[in-house]
Amino acid sequence: MSSEWPESLDLKIVDAIIDAAFAEDIGKGDLTSEAVIPAETKFTGVMSAREEMVCAGLPIAGRVFERYSKNITWTPRAADGDKVQAGAVLAELEGPAVDLLTAERTAINILQHLSGIATLTRTYADKIADLNTILLDTRKTIPVYRQLAKYATRMGGATNHRMALDDGVLIKDNHVAISGGITEAVRRAQANKLSNIEVECDTLEQVKEAVEVGADMILFDNMSAENMVEAVAIVAGRVPTEASGDVNLETIRAKAETGVTHISVGRLTHSAPAVNIGLDWSALNS
Prior knowledge:
CATH architecture of the largest domain: Alpha-Beta Complex
Number of domains: 2
CATH class of the largest domain: Alpha Beta
Strand content: 15-25%
Structural class: alpha/beta
Shape: elongated
Number of helices: 11
Strand order of the largest sheet: 6-11-10-9-8-7
Largest sheet: 6 strands, parallel
Order of helices and strands: HHEEHEEEHEHEHHEHEHEHEHE
Distance between the termini: 29 Å
């Protein structure tokens, strides 16, 4: 199984996150492992899935061990994006027992969190897999983890929305309120030579206004599926549309069937439960 680094992940950002995690978790050293395990003790082990899951973060977990100790060998047995069953071996490891035990929690924490995001994302993606609606994530991520979280949603089958505030224009309700209306907000954005201007609309009247003023994409915010049918008809295919708010596993299908082109789901990143992954020793010697 390939252990190549994903092109879409910035290694400098990942290394900074790993280093911060080491500082948080290890401090000055692993007092327990250093006290009870002889320094020369070696081991081989396996990292395994303890429940059905979609993998995300395996190269990052491998990078954790590599960054902590050059004496650890990490051999992946699955790939990011794979759906695996409980008991599946994700990777094999060899190296000094103390080093592996010290770095273990950082690696597993990241892998469990990202695989949890990918697993939940795949569940949502499967709900609308036979439709033409594109599943999007949001900026509702744990601070500093955004690049990792959005990588995980891609592994689960979603498409990334804005990575950051400088990555796209989205005029929301507070922008509208402060500007004095959708028309004025859009015109100000256009005057600043901004393109791909998306406007959040709460009502059908706002949808009409946003289309008339020349918005490039319309977001239906917290609209029922019934209202969205009317909103999609108003837009009439002139620009892409997005549904956001009150989207869960029970509602996503009905909203996608309205003909909306995109659906964004914040819970993919802010509410995904971590999956269960374990590291077990298969051999130990000194």
